């Protein structure tokens, strides 16, 4: 039985990923920062809720302790929780805005990964999937022919670029763990007021695929549904 934690799984891409991985036979801990939203979502899927606010060190440590006591190890960690950030024109973004966005999208991933490394190392085939974005790709955001070129979000886009490098550094440091970043594509969720052109089923596809790669899969890469992303 594969034991899996997904952060920010009470809605959107995280919830759909949880639904699909449960369908595939994983034992999923549905992570959410809000207990009521988390419990409701977990009840819909018939799975377990774990309170985890990725910006709160104590909450992250308590979640790791809970899963250590409950399962003793973790096979798959999906770092999905993310925020869109300030949503301001580039010149109006402050240092404090950057800190807030990075606290969830970058530092949050490190907080969670750091706390769960011992449990991942206790797995036979540990896998980490970090949910980045095409907006974090320098190649895509620099190409006027791409839709990503036209989305100027200083804090969000750069946080997702940083997340790809964070993924690559972990992959080199921990060759026994498969660490990959993914881009779900522009997906209709609360994050973008449901403006995204992909459904959550389409968006979650690459997250689910990379969560299931097992010990022989790639590591240190960045993937979307079409394959490796140039970043
Ligand atoms: P969403 O529907 O807004 O879901 C975001 C999830 O993250 C929610 O469950 C939210 O919880 C949770 N979250 C936010 N801050 C958190 C924190 N501090 N601790 C724990 N959970 C937290 O958005 P989504 O589109 O599914 O986004 C999921 C991931 O996909 C994000 O990393 C996003 O950047 C990435 N992504 C999305 C798109 C897209 O087009 N939608 C494209 C590329 C990448 P609450 O309900 O409590 O707020």
Detailed description of the structure:
The chain has a single domain (about 5-230), classed as Rossmann fold (3-Layer(aba) Sandwich), CATH 3.40.50. The longest helix is centred in the last third of the chain and has 20 residues, at about 155-175. Helix 1 (about 10-25) links the parallel strand 1 (about 5) and strand 2 (about 25-30). The chain starts with a strand and ends with a strand. The protein is globular. The protein contains 8 helices and 8 strands, in the order βαβαβαβααβααβαββ. Strands 3-2-1-4-5-6-7-8 form an 8-stranded mixed beta sheet, with helices on both faces. Helix 1 (about 10-25) packs across helix 8, helix 3 runs parallel beside helix 5 (about 105-120) and helix 4 (about 95-105) packs across helix 7. The chain has about 230 residues and is an alpha/beta fold. NADP nicotinamide-adenine-dinucleotide phosphate (NAP) binds near residues 11 and 14.
């Amino acid at each position: 039985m594969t034991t899996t934690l997904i952060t920010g799984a009470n809605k959107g891409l995280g919830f759909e990923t949880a639904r699909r991985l449960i369908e595939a036979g994983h034992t999923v801990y549905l992570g959410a920062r809000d207990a009521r939203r988390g419990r409701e979502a977990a009840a819909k899927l018939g799975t377990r809720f774990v309170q985890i606010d990725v910006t709160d060190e104590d909450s992250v440590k308590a979640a790791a302790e809970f899963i250590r006591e409950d399962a003793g190890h973790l096979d798959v960690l999906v770092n999905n929780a993310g925020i869109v950030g300030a949503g301001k024109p580039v010149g109006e973004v402050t240092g404090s805005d950057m800190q807030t966005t990075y606290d969830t999208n970058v530092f949050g991933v490190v907080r969670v990964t750091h706390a769960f490394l011992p449990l991942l190392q206790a797995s036979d085939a540990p896998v980490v999937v970090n949910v980045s974005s095409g907006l974090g790709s320098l190649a895509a955001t620099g190409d006027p022919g791409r839709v990503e070129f036209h989305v100027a979000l200083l804090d969000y886009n750069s946080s997702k670029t940083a997340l790809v490098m964070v993924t690559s550094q972990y992959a080199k440091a921990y060759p026994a763990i498969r660490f990959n970043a993914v881009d779900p594509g522009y997906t209709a969720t609360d994050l973008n007021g449901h403006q995204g052109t992909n459904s959550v089923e389409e968006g979650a596809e690459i997250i689910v695929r990379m969560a299931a790669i097992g010990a022989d899969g790639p590591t240190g890469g960045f993937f979307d549904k079409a394959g490796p992303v140039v970043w």
